[in-house]
Amino acid sequence: MADLFAGEIATELLKMLITITRKACLCKPSAQQLILTVNQLLPIITEIKYSGVELTQTRQHQLDKISIVLQEAHELALKALNSSRWNMYKNLQLARKMDKVEKKISRFVQGPLQAHVLADLHHVRFETTERFDRLDGSAHRLEQRLGLLKIDGEMDQMMEKVDFEDGMCENELVKVGIELGIRKVKDMIFEVQVFDEMSQWVFGVNGIGGSGKTTLVREICRDDEVRSYFNNRILFLTVSQSPNMEELRRKIRGFLADSELKGCSDITPQWTGYSNLKTETPVLVVLDDVWSLQVLQQLIFKVPGCKTLVVSRIKFPSSVLNSSYELELLGEDDAVSLFCHTAFGRPSIPPGTDENLIKQIVEKCKGLPLALKVIGASLRDQPEKYWSGANKRLSRAQPINDSHEAELLNRMRLSIDYLSEKVRNCFLDLGSFPEDKKIPLDVLINVWTELHDIDEEEGYAILDELSSKNLLTLVKDSRAGDRYSSYYEISVCQHDVLRDLAIHMSSFESVNHRKRLVMARRENGVPKEWERDVDEPFLARIVSVHTGEMREMDWPKMEFPKAEVLILNFDSTEYLLPQFIENMPKLRALVLINYSTKTAEIHNLSVLGNLTNLRSLWFEKVSIPQLPKKTILPLTNLRKLSLLLCKINLKDEESELDLSHLFPRLNELAMDHCIEMTKLPSSLCRVKTLKSLSITNCESLEELPCDFGKLLFLQILRVYACPKLKTLPVGLKNLIWLEHIDVSQCVNLHCLNEEIGGCFNLKEIVMLECPQIKNLPKSVSGLRSLRRVICDEEVSWHWKEMEKELPGLCVQIVEQCFDLDWLIE
Q1: Measured distance CA(386)–CA(394) in Å, rounded
Q2: Which of 93, 235, 343, 810 is most exposed, with the fewest beta carbons within 10 Å of its own?
Q3: Buried b (16+ CB within 10 A) or exposed e, 181-217
Q4: Average pLDDT of the residues in 18-34
Q5: 360: buried, middle or exposed (CB in 10 Å: 19+, 13-18, 0-12)?
Q6: H/E element holding 422?
Q7: pLDDT tens digits for 504-519?
Q8: Three-state DSSP state, 252
Q9: In terms of C-beta density within 10 A (0-12 exposed, 13-18 middle, 19 or more buried), how is residue 504 classed?
Q10: Could you tell me the pLDDT band of residue 50, with boundaries at 50, 70 and 90?
Q11: In the predicted structure, residue 702 carries a pLDDT above the cut 70
């Protein structure tokens, strides 16, 4: 029996040895075949990467990855060819590695590459259909004219007329709404002479994706006046996300060399030598679709006589550009005209069509040319019911059809794919706020800090990056970005198409598994799509609801075990908080905003009692007649409380509420336009952790608590626009950590308290429009840390006299500015 087993083992070992030997012997032929495969694929992949065509970040990453694999395969095959045929072990190892590489290449060719081909075919199909539709329209018009012909000799004349009219129609389509932009960019280019020694003239055109930047610049390049100015010496280059820098530089060098440069045959970017060189005539280099500052800097040639026009979705800094023009979106009339050109082949709404429906769809495009063209093309020759359905889908931030998704949303998505993961997630969070509403900056920063573990400074930097890439509009005032600026008076706006894109990109998964669960528009209740899935928990980290008045029976039972941010938007005079808040154990930020014209009374506040992780509360335009003291447990982790346009009774039936018990760890308290509040509760002074107190636009506030000096760790104090406040509180000298105080527009404030001299760490004082303050207390001479005072001219000379005693003090005089933007709200 033992001999039998030994024989079988020996047989198996012999088979394995033969297999290994065969594999080792076939190593060199496998290597040769692998090199052949690499040599066939690698040039194709390289050509795709550097073709100048826009690639999504996913495609670019896949192509980069397979390029690395192909290069590794080539190196591996060369090692196999150079290996000795008698080194069986090494050949076997190389053969195994080559097998793995071949499998990777095979998986790419049979998987992602096929998907790339299908996607490209889809784009081609849409573009081909669009072009055939144009041809059909031309043929239809031709048939109509031929039917009227009486003489065959008129054929050629009619053909020429049809071609001319088609060309005019296309030309009109291109030029809709861009005449102003053409004029401004031409003025920008012509305003300077380029023959100054070592001058560098770089101009920019920027705007949101799909706003018509390339169309505008192409028209400028065709303009007779521009072509005459540059003597037809215009070079137009598309840079794209995946530029071949050497090829682009080579083309620019060749273009400049053809312009008869004297004394030097080699020009390099940012060239600074041979200052006597210049082109014989002005030349224009147009760099279209530039995606990064680093790429731009490598393509700027500092040669007198050369002007560079940069086209980008990004706002490049003034250190690089001499001047820039941000492309404006189309007005209502131009938007309707462009849409009708695309949808009907004429510049106006055709008779007999539903004018109201057409204008509703145009309005949803918000003046974005790409949206108007794509949606118009998608609806061309469709029945009226299809148009109505499209209007409803647009209202829900959903694509009309495949072509709308591919040609608009996916093209807009290029800007998002180019962002880092953290910034991209912050952009997607913007879809959680209602359309056509300003987003309070403070709310947005709070959401980001809670969701993405970033601080306020990093949040503002992300906001600035998104603004520079035209993905949002930051409504700035003179204080935006300042160390002590208050964010609640600053807001953010976003184009509806970008909001739709954010919602679209967040909605690929099923409702229960989305990271962001968002109601795209206001509805009377919770979406039916949500109600159908209430049996399973919703795994979203951020939940956004937008409804009218909600009562207890209107809220379904839902579970949100992973929700960290809840945004409740509504417009009504009564609102009941949903019971499912109790089922949000991880909730960190709650935002409650009423968009009605009247203050809404809030009910069911007791659901907040179990939110032990809640860190931030934002209440806007709500009324809380009585805080339920007995049913709300202390919010032990609440760090930030913001109350805007609120009516809140801070007393119970017996006495004043103890805020130090309710909010034992509160760091920031902001109250704005709480017009019925006459004084702050004294218990606030027992909140030892308070670092920032902002009381603004509270016209009834008469005094601050007498125990104000107990807020030992207070760093920022704002009592802005409180007209009835006459004095600062006693105990101010105890605030040794106070860094910033703002008493602007406190028109009845008589003086700065003499105790202010005890605030040894005070760095900034803002006292604009305080006409009653005529003199400064003598104690201000002891403010050795004071670095900046912002005030009116009337009181500035007092502070300028203090500059001698306070080294490093800067007195900034600000003129009165009367802003009525708040009336828009």
Answers
A1: 12
A2: 810
A3: bbebbeebbeeeebeeeebbbbbbbbbbbbbbbebbb
A4: 57
A5: middle
A6: helix 421-429
A7: 888 888 899 999 999 8
A8: helix
A9: buried
A10: low
A11: yes
Query: Do 185 and 212 meet the contact criterion of CB atoms below 8 Å apart?
Result: no
* Dihedral angle of Cα 132, 134, 135, 136, to the nearest 10 degrees: 90
Sign of the Cα torsion 324, 330, 331, 334 reads positive
Q: With a cut of 70, say whether residue 124 has pLDDT above it.
A: no
**Alpha-carbon torsion angle 426, 432, 438, 441, nearest 10:** -40
- Strand ranges (E), 153-270: 201-206, 234-238
Beta bridge partners of 810: 788
Q: What is the pLDDT of residues 57-73, one digit of tens each?
A: 566 667 777 777 777 77
Distance CA 479, CA 817 (A): 13
Nearest to 432 by CA among 594, 572, 568, 582: 568
Alpha helices in 633-675 (DSSP H): 659-662
Lowest mean pLDDT among 60-64, 303-307, 576-580, 606-610: 60-64
Amino acid of residue 570:
F
Decide: 603 and 630 in contact? Cβ < 8 Å.
no
Rounded to an integer, what distance in angstroms lies between the CA atom of residue 370 and that of residue 182?
A: 18
Phi, psi of 594 (to 5 degrees): -100, 120
For the record, the structure tokens of 360 come out as 């509703």
Sheet holding 491-493, edge to edge: 439-440, 491-493, 473-475
628 or 666: whose pLDDT is higher? 666
* Mean pLDDT value across residues 755-762: 91
The helix/strand/coil state of 82 is: helix
DSSP 533-557: TTTS----SEEEEEES---GGGSPP
Say if strands 647-648 and 716-718 run parallel, antiparallel, or are unpaired: unpaired
**Distances, alpha carbon 369 to alpha carbons 57, 216, 561, 665, 701, in Å:** 24, 11, 42, 50, 50
On the 0-12 / 13-18 / 19+ scale of CB atoms within 10 A, 265 is exposed
What b/e sequence results for 713-734 when a residue is b if at least 16 CB atoms lie within 10 Å of its CB, and e otherwise? ebbbbbbbbbbebeebbebbbb
Which tops the pLDDT comparison, 727 or 103? 727
Name residue, tokens 């203090």: 802
Token pair listed for 459:
């949040």
Distance of CA 730 to the CA centre of its chain: 46
Contact at 8 Å (CB) between 395 and 364? yes
